[in-house]
Request: fold
Amino acid sequence: MSVSVRCPDSVWRSVNASGLMLLIFLLIGFVLPGAVHWSFIPAHALFGIDQAAHEPERLTGPMSAACILIFAMPLFFLTPDRAGTRTNWIDASVRGFKSVINTTPQPEALQKRRDLSVCAPVLHDGMTALLTFGGVYAAGVFHWHALAMTAYGITLSIFAVFGGFFGGWLDDHFGSKTALFVSVGGTAILGLLSVTMGPDRILWFIPYDVHAPHVNGLPFFNTWPELIFLGILVLVAITVTAS
Reply:
């Protein structure tokens, strides 16, 4: 059984908007209170959340699950079924599981869809690992805490939107395979460049004085190594989204 579904644009807009809205809510409601004294920021974290116990970070898991559930609604209600395939969710689930079970032991079936059976999972896992590593590297090397990491996530989410346009332009002008070579290759090169940055160095070979005056008045991203590192990861977000 083969089923092809094309999700409407509203689904993708909902996915992008949900992640950005969640990060902004976390920033305003739990991370910024007590760190800045802006009029629109609460004096204390919402709902009595204890920042010292790292409760804002621990909340991200349950809040992400709730976000996925809520913002998946457009997928359930706006993605059309193909004509003649409407069925209840139990029958559809059973047919789906049987399809996976019947396909897995058949090498010839997997051979016909190598793009889905091998290439796509490897690509997606690799991209997820790279994005996760960027956050781990930032926290471990630059010692970014919840405030900086949340701002980092918001920044990358915003610029990742441009990756969709960039990937579409590459695909339209050069074809899908060339678009993948450019976007994946660019991601690999930029990912390697990101690990050449540190609080006391730029691109490994350029030393930086960690006691130098801050280049801006922000409570984060206020040194040249941090700004350049952030710029590299912004480009990574663009190429990852393009791929």
